[in-house]
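About this split. The held-out portion is used to measure sequence recovery: a designer receives only the structure tokens and must propose an amino acid at every position. Recovery is the fraction of positions where the proposal matches the reference. Here is one held-out target exactly as it appears in the evaluation file.
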């Protein structure tokens, strides 16, 4: 190859890699944002990323696009190693036409996603785009359709993580919504269908962009986002931490941290004192989780949304587990519409990727009231029943205190498939609390009694003596063991070891019909 030809080729490579040019890169940096290439470099191990389709070019000629260049089509795609594990990724480049997505942009993204599917590697999509490339018209919309369809093909096969590092508006927001986890950068990541100006024009409502589609809105109110990151660097750190608990695909088991397998088994006396003697007194279930898992280390998912239930990734003796736990510190740990949705989705993710489930139960029931009924608590609550019933991974349940009514069943009871079900001596498993039960069971006697309060107190004591302990349930085979709280970690470790080779075949069908 002649010197001139080589120089021309190198110039073309440099042009495609130059992104939007120095001025736009400086503007991106001044906004406190990394650029697309910096994000990729931070995400992947050093010198371990191979870019793909750098020279892909659009084919649209409208509005003078036939002569317009979009370096790398405004998105960097490729594959490489993250902590020595193979991962595919796409990173949108806001410095190139606002990161707008055209037909070729979408084709690049869909192609690297298909590679993730074919090779069984996780896919990470860093979103930072003003939306569809309007000049391309319906071709741009068709491109989004390809991305959405490929998201669905990847679902349940390889983990998908979305980082919202800038704007992600309109139809573009549905791709993150189809992935497993959304990490949204505070104050910079924006996720919404229609902007404030359109809302004002159509409805007259005045709303700020942050209140409409900001990280805190989606993490605490809508439940769209799972994690809030302080900045780009924090978002990438969270993505790597999520991956550390997950297998590469649905045919693999999660990675084992070998050094944790050597943690000696022993009782944990602190567990005996976490739960108050007063059954109406609150406590933070995260203290229980910390005491149970390796080094007290766990990653809470959806921390700010529906906080009356906690879902998290952790490890016991090096093995990844998914934890679902009622949170008595928030609304007594009751199940409502949002908590049911949150837990059900997490259960289904863990089941898809062979992650055993540990359920910690302290639940007074489903949330009563006309508001919850009109919001469809029957439908939402059924999602959790469905998710646990369908899950075929090892399922371990520990009833710590209250387990009342339908919520007892929904929190992975023995009858919907728990493989190992234990209770602490403090457990109360019943249709409802003693006070309410007595009002139903002894309504006539209480009405006729000379001293209703005394009779009520007597009957409540009788009911509590019978049901305010786990022995009745154990006698019916609904519990496998009654254990001291301090022995819970050992119990779970033994059960996880025994169940690691569990295989369960579900009835042959195309798919079930979860009550969405």
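Reference sequence for scoring:
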């Amino acid at each position: 190859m002649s010197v001139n030809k080589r120089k021309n080729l190198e110039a073309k490579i440099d042009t495609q890699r130059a992104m939007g040019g120095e001025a736009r890169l400086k503007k991106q940096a001044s906004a406190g944002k990394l650029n697309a290439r910096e994000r990729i470099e931070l995400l992947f191990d050093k010198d371990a990323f191979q870019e793909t389709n750098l020279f892909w070019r659009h084919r649209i000629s409208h509005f003078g696009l036939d002569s317009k260049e979009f370096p790398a089509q405004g998105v960097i795609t490729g594959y490489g190693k993250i902590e020595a594990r193979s991962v595919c990724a796409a990173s949108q480049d806001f410095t190139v036409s606002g990161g707008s997505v055209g037909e070729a942009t979408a084709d690049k993204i869909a192609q690297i996603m298909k590679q993730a599917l074919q090779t069984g590697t996780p896919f990470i999509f860093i979103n930072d785009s003003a939306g569809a490339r309007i000049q391309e018209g319906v071709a741009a919309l068709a491109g989004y359709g390809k991305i959405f369809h490929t998201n669905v093909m990847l679902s349940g096969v390889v983990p998908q993580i979305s980082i919202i590092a800038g704007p992600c508006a309109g139809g573009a927001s549905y791709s993150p919504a189809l992935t497993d986890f959304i990490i949204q950068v505070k104050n910079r990541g924006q996720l919404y269908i229609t902007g404030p100006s359109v809302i004002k024009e159509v409805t007259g409502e005045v709303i700020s962009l942050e209140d409409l589609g900001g990280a805190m809105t989606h993490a605490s109110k809508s439940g769209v986002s799972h994690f809030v990151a302080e900045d780009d660097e924090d978002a990438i750190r969270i993505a790597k931490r999520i991956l550390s608990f997950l297998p590469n695909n649905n045919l693999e088991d999660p990675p084992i941290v070998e050094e944790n397998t050597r943690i000696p088994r022993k009782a944990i006396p602190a567990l005996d004192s976490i739960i108050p003697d007063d059954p109406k007194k609150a406590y933070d279930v995260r203290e229980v989780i910390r005491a149970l898992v390796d080094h007290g280390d766990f990653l809470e998912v959806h921390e700010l949304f529906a906080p009356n239930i906690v879902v998290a990734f952790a490890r016991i003796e090096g093995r990844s587990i998914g934890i679902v736990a009622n949170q008595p510190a928030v609304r007594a740990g009751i199940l409502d519409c949002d908590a049911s949705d949150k837990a059900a989705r997490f259960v289904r993710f863990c089941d898809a990727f062979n992650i055993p489930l540990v359920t910690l139960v302290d639940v007074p029931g489903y949330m009563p009231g006309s508001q919850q009924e009109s919001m469809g608590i029957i439908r939402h609550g059924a999602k959790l029943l469905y998710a646990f019933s369908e899950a075929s991974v090892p399922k371990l349940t520990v009833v710590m205190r209250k387990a009342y009514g339908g919520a007892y069943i929904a929190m992975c009871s023995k009858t919907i498939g728990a493989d190992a079900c234990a209770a602490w001596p403090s457990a109360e498993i019943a249709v409802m609390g003693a006070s309410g039960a007595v009002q139903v069971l002894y309504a006539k006697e209480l009405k006729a009694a000379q001293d209703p309060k005394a009779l009520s107190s007597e009957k409540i004591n009788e009911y509590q003596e019978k049901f305010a302990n786990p022995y009745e349930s154990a006698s019916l085979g609904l519990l496998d063991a009654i254990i001291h709280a301090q022995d819970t970690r050992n119990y779970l470790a033994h059960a996880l070891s025994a169940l690691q080779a569990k295989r369960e075949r579900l009835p042959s069908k195309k798919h079930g019909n979860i009550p969405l």
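Annotator remark: Residues 433-468 form one domain.
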